[in-house]
Every structure is written in C-alpha cells, then in structure tokens.
Amino acid sequence: MELEAYELVLLWRPADAPEYDLETLDRLQREHLDYLAWLREQGSVATNGPVLGQPDPALRGLTVFRTGSVEETRRLAEDDPLVHAGRLRVDVMTFLCQPGALRDRGRPVTVDE
C-alpha cells in the first residue's frame, strides 16, 4: 500500500502552564495564529486547528506539517510563541495517510472564539 507521510504535532496545555493577564494571552494567541499562518504560506504546514470533544481537555489542537523531517518539524513547532511562553507543549510524530487524503474537504463548522 502506498501512503503519504506528514509530520503531526499535537499541542497540549501543560498542567503547570504559567498564568498571564488577558492582554498578554490575547497577544500570545494572535502571535500563535500569525506564526501558523506564516508556516502555511511558507509551505511547511498543510493544515492546523483546535480540537473539540477531546477526552483529555489538555489536548488543545494539532498541526499537520510537511517538512519531510520530524527534527525540522519539532524545531518549527517549538518556535511557536505559545510554546515559548509555556502555554503549550508539543508532541511530534510521523503521520501516514492515503495519497491525496488531505485535499479532501471536511465538514464546515463554526467555532466561537
């Protein structure tokens, strides 16, 4: 069976995540989203987003990278402003899927901010 390989990053909220005031949290969230948008524009990220209904609420989101390297993906994921601030930690692994699967469309949903 032929498969495509991507790098999958799970974003977790650490139990000991530092507390910040709302203004700082808003700034960090904007910087996080801007960083991920820049990685998509550069071609390093195929898709990313938050998760809903997860059994462990510490799991906050995921990012599918296409760098070809778990090490490079880890470096990029750890450069995320929310990771630097200690509000997220990352797990990085290889993800395999059928060729073309990530070009399929998911179902649309609206998420409250």
Approximate strand percentage: 25-35%
Biggest pleated sheet = 4 strands, antiparallel
Per DSSP E runs of 2 or more residues, the count of β-strands stands at 4
- Regions with little confidence, pLDDT below 50 for 5+ residues: none
Structure description:
With 113 residues, the protein is of the alpha+beta class. It has one domain: Dimeric alpha+beta barrel (Alpha-Beta Plaits, 2-Layer Sandwich). It is 30% helix and 27% strand. It is built from three helices and four strands. It has a four-stranded antiparallel β-sheet. The longest helix is centred in the N-terminal third of the chain and has 21 residues, at 22-42.
Keyphrases for this structure?
single chain; 113 residues; alpha+beta; Alpha-Beta Plaits; four-stranded antiparallel sheet; 3 helices; 4 strands; 30% helix
Give the arrangement of secondary structure elements.
Layout: E1 4-12, H1 22-42, E2 45-50, E3 59-65, H2 70-78, H3 81-84, E4 89-97
Antiparallel strand pairs: 1-3, 1-4, 2-3
Quick rundown:
The protein has 113 residues and is an alpha+beta fold. Helix content is 30%, strand content 27%. It is globular, with a radius of gyration of 15 Å.
